[in-house]
Amino acid sequence: MSTTDLSGHIAFVTGASGGLGRHFAITLARAGAKVALAARRPDALKAVAQEIEGFDGRAIAVPLDVTDAASVRAAVEAAETELGPITVLVNNSGVTETVAALDQDEASWDRVLDTNLKGAWLVATEVARHMVRLGHGGSIINIASILGLRQGGQVTAYATSKAALVQLTKQLALELARYQIRVNALAPGYIETDINREFFGTDAGKALIRRIPQRRLGQAADLDGPLLLLASDGSRYMTGSVLAVDGGHLVGSL
Ligand SMILES: NC(=O)c1ccc[n+]([C@@H]2O[C@H](COP(=O)([O-])OP(=O)(O)OC[C@H]3O[C@@H](n4cnc5c(N)ncnc54)[C@H](OP(=O)(O)O)[C@@H]3O)[C@@H](O)[C@H]2O)c1
């Protein structure tokens, strides 16, 4: 765990109801930030809020569907009313569909792009408008993926959405720098979570792990340092960066 101090910061974490988003929220709260936990499942969010309150952190649950502009506006407003001006956004909500490119239907494509790209754009721009209006600057962290930088089978929509998210990060970094808003991306490699643990126990999963230069899956805690760096003043001269956290997967030998 880093000792980075985020006291006085208000973080808004999308997709905080489970997986990496839950871990990011807990990490930021342990560093002293007050955290708005946002996603579609209120009960799961409340459970995470209770975990955070269990170590005397401060967190609230905010219902949010990132694909719906009105929901995004209401969630950001609710978070600021309750906690104060947002200074850190972790744009983490994301979905994937594992399907061959020629078998993917329009609804499946739209679900992935609407959540991972349009959703991230809606939340980032809404939060940034608040930061600009209040004039305090801030840090926006988009959770991309190494699949936004390389290719993988049966994830065309997902990889396309993450590549676009990388470009969205750079576009917003350019336009928002004048307002002291930094926009960076974290690009995790394969991180072990509840939903992929079973796959990584299979022969195909084990073969994939052998292609990672560090020969192991990432753990959520491996993202703590990079997350806290991007959230904090330690990255004050970084904007438009894409940090790969992947055990060297992107530099694997051909
Ligand atoms: N795990 C990995 O190895 C890995 C690697 C690289 C990148 N990533 C990225 O990391 C992020 C989190 O992944 P994960 O593995 O933690 O996935 P996960 O366990 O499936 O969590 C996804 C989160 O997104 C939320 N979400 C989905 N649709 C939403 C919507 N329309 N509105 C609001 N929230 C929504 C879900 O909450 P609700 O269902 O409650 O709405 C859930 O909390 C994703 O962006 C993913 O692409 C993960």
UniProtKB/TrEMBL annotation:
Superkingdom as given in the UniProt entry: Bacteria
GO molecular function, one term: glucose 1-dehydrogenase [NAD(P)+] activity
Domain Ketoreductase: 9-149
The EC number(s) this enzyme carries: 1.1.1.47
Aminoacyl-tRNA synthetase keyword on record: no
Enzyme category, top tier: oxidoreductase
Keyword field: Oxidoreductase
InterPro entries recorded: KR_dom, NAD(P)-bd_dom_sf, Sc_DH/Rdtase_CS, SDR_fam
NCBIfam families: PRK07231.1 (NF005559)
Annotated family: Belongs to the short-chain dehydrogenases/reductases (SDR) family.
Full protein name: Glucose 1-dehydrogenase
